[in-house]
Amino acid sequence: MKKKFRGASLVMPDRMYFFVTPALVLFLVFWVYPVLQLFYYSVTNFNGVNYNYDFVGFKNYARIIQEGSLINAIKNTFIYTVIIVVGSNLLGLALAMLLNMKIIGKTVFRTMSYIPALFSAIVVGFIWSYVYMPGSGMLAALLNAVGLDGSTVNLLGNFKTALYSIAVVDIWKNVGTTMIIYLAGLQTVDESLLEAGKIDGCTEWQLIRKIKLPLISATITINVVLNVIAGLKSFDYSFIMTNGGPGKATQTLMYIIFKTAFNDQMMGKASAFSVVSFILIIAITIAMLRFMNKREVEL
Amino acid sequence: MKKKFLSLVLAAGMTMSLLAGCGNSEATSTQSQDTQAQTAESSEETSSEATEAVAATADDVTITMMFSGVASENDFETEVLPKLIKEKFPNITLEVTKLPDDQYYTALKTKLASGECPDIILVQPKYAGSNSVIELAKAGYLMDLSDLSFLDLAGDAAKEAFTYDGKVYGVAQGVSILGTYYNKNMFDENGLEVPKTWDEFLDCCETLKNAGIQPIVMGDKDAYVMQFGLYQIAANEVYPNNASFDDQLRTGETSFEDEGTWDKVLEMYYELYDKGYVIESSLGLGAAQAIQMFVDGEAAMTFDGSFNAAALTADGKVDFERGYFPLPAVNGDTYASMAPGGGPAVYAGTQHPDEVKAILEYWFDGESPAYQAFASTGNVIITYGYGADQNDAMFDAFLDLYNQGKAWYWCNQAWPSGTENEMESLFGSMIGGQGTTVSDITSGMQMKLEELLEAN
Fold first, then answer.
1. Which runs of E-coded beta strand occur in B224-315?
2. Which residue of chain B has the CA closest to A43?
């Protein structure tokens, strides 16, 4: 018997493949198969109950494009994503830099800014719908207290402001998590490099721009990616705070999938939405990772 | 070589045990779903052993039942009913599982698909919800219950709501009402009475508005509340002219765009917003917040259902007396918007059809201990038998209309589910000043309806 098969891989000897089987079976049954099923349902008119469904070809796809609900949902999702990526990262980074300084009560402030992240989305959404409540909500009361007219504040009921208002809630809740990751990144920055920079006459801004940011570029990548994923998957606040309304102003991709599948009982059409979202999210993630990875090396 | 073989066997073994593990965990999860029911009936087990000897001739059967909702303390379905059934039929054990709504729908779908459906399930009237009686009957999942004797007691409206193809497939549990709650003190202070026609209603609103009182508060941020007002108007203006308007929507004989039907309903309702009778910030208010404002005396009226009566009669910042009236028709011939409540139906594949029917006969006969316990839960408005005179006096005007046959089901119960969401979104755009017109809404509803009919 030969000791080694010709051409056998050194990394993964042939028989090792057998050990992959259990994990592979689980992966195929519970992940790959359902995803493939999604593609299959998207060309049927399955309603979730009746298994005597028909094939309708690409009608579901044609319909979601024609009626404009797909475009509207994509637009809302993108706006939402951009707001929370920019907002959450700028705010999180600023907070992390502040809380990385030697100030009194640092741990208290760190804890406080992380507390909102501990609540469930339901709780946060419920509390904030009272903050935004027209007439007597917290925001209206605050405006009244400083002498402005609070009775006209109706952020969630206004078509122009509803989406931004729920994005702000998302930022408020998740900025703590972003901040913690940035803080961890900032603490890896070598003190001696900063000292060397100061000796060379760097201003505070130059220290941040030329030393801190390049050194935490990996952290930035992680935070941006996490926030982009959270934004593209956004569902919670549209569902809890506005029910996709007013009109269709806060319907995101995930919300419209849920609504189509469980309110309208159109699993086929919901699958078509899901397939589009699936492709879109994968494309965006790949593009972004390639871009960010390049930046990381450059910096 | 040996080693290689051994590792092969091991890997295969691992795979097998993993797959076996899946099978097992599935079994336990169904078990845990039933534990709630089992604990409910285990307390009766000891007492039943004594009576078992008596009922030795009849076979012991276990009837399973699945309902939606959250079990409360001394819950009627999960605790009281199984006990009373055991007392009446010692050989029958009723096992009841109660699941929160969303889980119920999922569980029902899976159980129907796998052919392991409980004997008794909760269904909604007409086409309402994903457990609607007509959809399930059409798919052949339900047993014909037309020969149950108590159905005549419940009345035609209840029977009609659970009928498909001339056969009755479900039992209504009481009724639910949509109406207008009003602040009696505010009405008295402004010399107002319950309006008898639509014009009188508008006058009421105008008087209140001129007196500096917000006439109506609605929580349109939760868009479903728009149905509360719209269906009351539709009950007056659409169905009296054509009782089978909704059935004809399905055959294409009628359309939402027909003149004098939904365009009229939407225009009448929009007028309330246009004239500022409904609070201007309604799109930013949640349903609970609107109820709170009514209870706190910040508005004179709100459209809501009998199912929210507890919240609407709770104590607020000010004390006042509440009243409840159906929105009046233009010509004064007012109809109520009242829906027979969802109730039990029987799975077509049940092994014990006779026992299940005996249970239902006993439960809904209008006088048995089971019916009395059911009527005393206070969760539904009873229309016949024991407890029919115990309902809140607020509902009397509605029940009179109901018993005269002057009541219509809720519109969305006859539509494919999803149509009402389109109506709400579009009406929201209209009151939000997005330039949506009434004809945009009716054509949007018609498009959605056609799409949903095609899909389902």
1. 299-305
2. B455
A50 vs B contacts (CB less than 8 Å): 135, 139, 456
* B281/B427 same-domain check: yes
Binary contact (B135, A50; C-beta < 8 A): yes
Number of domains in chain A: 1
Domain containing residue A228? 52-298
| pLDDT tens digits, A112-138 | 989 999 999 999 999 998 899 888 888
The enclosing domain of A200 has a CATH number of: 1.10.3720.10
Q: At what angle do helices B419-431 and B438-455 cross, to 10 degrees?
A: 160
Contact state of A246 with B429 under an 8 Å Cβ cutoff: yes
- Interface with B, mutate which of A4, A18, A21, A165 (most B CBs under 10 A): A18
- The complex scores an ipTM of 0.76
Kindly state the DSSP code that residue B326 receives in the 8-state scheme. Answer: P
> In Å, what is the CA distance from A144 to each residue of A138, A294, B317?
10, 50, 21
Among A4, A31, A37, A50, most B C-beta atoms within 10 A, so best to mutate, is A50
Q: Is residue B375 part of a domain?
A: no
What's the number of domains chain B is made of? 2
d(CA A247, CA B443): 16
- Domain contains A22: no
Q: Which residues pair with B179 in a beta bridge?
A: B304
CB contact under 8 A, A159 and B285: no
Of A15, A129, A243, the CB nearest to B7: A15
The more confident residue out of B149 and B42 is: B149
Dump pLDDT digits (tens) for B391-445: 788 888 888 888 888 888 889 888 887 888 889 999 999 998 888 899 999 999 9
CB half-sphere exposure, B87, CA atoms < 13 A: 11
